[in-house]
Amino acid sequence: MATAYTWHPGAPCLxxxxxxxxxxxxxxxxSSWLVRTALRHGCPPRTLTHVVWPHTRVxxxxxxxxxxxxxxxxxxxxxxxxxxxxxxSTLRPVIRAIVGDVHTPPRGVWPWVLVLGSRGRFHxxxxxxxxxxxxQSEPYYQIQQRLAWHCACETHGLQLVDHCPFCSAVxxxxxxxxGKRVSQCHHCGHDLGQTLSRAAVGPALELxxxxxxxxxxxxxxxxxxxxxxxxxxxxxxxxxxxxMAALRPSANTRRFCSQMGIDMASVRPEPLGLPFEYLGxxxxxxxxxxxxxxxxxxPERFMxxxxxxxxxxxxxxxxxxxxxxxxxxxxAVLISHSPKTCTRTAHDPAHxxxxxxxxxxxxxxxxxxxxxx
Length: 373
Known about the structure:
Strand content: under 5%
Distance between the termini: 32 Å
Strand order of the largest sheet: 1-2
Structural class: mainly alpha
Radius of gyration: 22 Å
């Protein structure tokens, strides 16, 4: 399961109180290590964490977002894994590389980090796996499998999966009971290593490898070297543009996409309008593959084609603060339209098919979260 880069090297257990604690593996998620430790000792994960944090229900939140340093000390003392190693296994180092020193709230969506969609102890998604990696002698979940730009396993060249193929339940190892392995579905018990997966989408994998190789360093957008944060910001905005173009296509956006060589057939409209970080690997792969086409073309090509297609300024959702200067230059060539007066009537019209579909998809997400499928 090794990759060409790492977020952390892992750590052994040294003089811990718990006799069967497994070592923290390279790039392993903090939650994955907690689950493996609990199962090794024959108890549910929530029992293990209750011993360390008796007054905190840690599984009601996204534990991989991490805690303050002092909360890791009792876990380090019990397990023998150093505090610093446990902190590096969370998503905080990732978000610092993406947004810099900007404060990130404990709740809400973190950019480029998949959302678990927690309600109580149940999740609606947010964790991916590679079937081939699940067949290894010591399966575990990696930090990379919580990152929104990761849609494929670089080792095996397969598209990642975020649900059980047998019962369609989302992947939630924290709900496993004693006697099960990390590679099993918490709901039906089937081996996730038996999942069939398709080959990775080539351009999406190229984008993934480019970001992974930089990991906080400089990246080129055309002939412009950008910081990791600025490059990721522009890429995220291009993803939003593609989603808007798929959901509300116009003659201008179609013309622009055709001139840029973008395959809009591979970008499926998202009926719920959820943030990118809520989407599954297949939907994200289509968006990232076409975002990679835009990023390879460079800003000059973007501005030239946008001007020819008379692209509207509303197509680029520029951040209110912290926008890269290059992004503002690109937005300057877009056409600004005068605001229109709302002509909505007083009576409530019938729901459109799209509104009904959104309501239906929301209901399906709630049913999956509460194991009602």
